[in-house]
Design a protein that fits this description.
three-stranded antiparallel β-sheet; elongated
Length: about 260
């Protein structure tokens, strides 16, 4: 006895045959134009990189977004917007930016920062920091005569915070001349040499000349340097060294390029 398909089966089969055929390498067709599957994969990868978990809902949302983009793109083409010079220039720049990003990502993958480079940079920074950090305050004036007058007022008992209001340094004058905790390498050499020679609580008895003018410096406090552990700063060091590698590579390419 022959088994004929049920009416329901025939209806389902007819419906299936009526569906538009979408190639395996595309996710949809819009007015006969196929949307490449690679485009969907690229958008999905962007979403995953931002922490969005993969799901059927995400895939459907990406497909719908690509369909809408294709609809709008086709409408723009009908109006000839893709032929406008300014639009073409922007499209060229967008393509160029994508190529540059891909190239630099490949360069970073091929030229990673090594653990030895990270340790060397960490040791160099610690060396520049020294074994102490200082908390100075200062008054900056234009002439040596003004600086000597400031010192005379301090010797007569004037509070340092008071005379600091006359400082030419806008970043510290309203804080009594306070500069915060820092290592000597952060200051110009005449300033740092005078600062480290001071005893805690003392100020310079003679003006200190620098390219900025004349300083009167007081040392409020000194403490041992507390360098952060290597593992704590490793991500920041890695990012900075990788950026430096990229910048050097770009400069090398620029120097080799023939620009007319």
């Amino acid at each position: 006895m022959k088994h004929f398909p049920s009416r329901l089966a025939i209806t389902l089969l007819a419906g299936f045959l009526a569906l538009p055929v979408v190639a395996a390498d595309s996710v949809a067709k819009v007015n006969g134009v196929a949307i490449p599957a690679a485009r969907a994969q690229a958008m999905l990868a962007e979403q995953r990189a931002q922490g969005v978990p993969d799901s059927e809902q995400l895939q459907n949302a990406v497909r719908e977004e690509l369909v809408r983009r294709e609809v709008l793109s086709q409408e723009a083409g009908k109006k000839g917007l893709d032929k406008k010079a300014d639009v073409q220039a922007q499209m060229d720049m967008a393509r160029q930016a994508i190529l540059i990003r891909a190239y630099l990502q490949e360069f970073v993958r091929a030229n990673p920062v090594t653990d030895a480079e990270l340790q060397k940079e960490y040791d160099a920074i610690k060396g520049r920091m020294g074994d102490k950090e200082y908390k100075p305050r200062h008054v900056l004036v234009e002439t040596e005569t003004e600086a000597k007058a400031i010192i005379a007022r301090l010797q007569n008992g004037a509070p340092f915070e008071e005379v600091a209001k006359e400082s030419r340094d806008p970043g510290s004058k309203d804080r009594g001349g306070e500069l915060g905790w820092s290592n000597p390498g952060m200051y110009v050499k005449p300033f740092s040499d005078a600062m480290v020679a001071l005893e805690k609580g003392k100020y310079t008895s003679t003006p200190v000349k620098s390219d900025f003018g004349y300083h009167v410096i007081q040392l409020d406090d000194v403490r041992p340097v507390q360098a952060p552990p290597f593992d704590e700063v490793k991500p920041q060091l890695q990012q900075r060294l990788q950026q430096q590698k990229v910048e050097r590579h770009v400069m090398e390419l620029r120097e080799k390029a023939k620009v007319e």
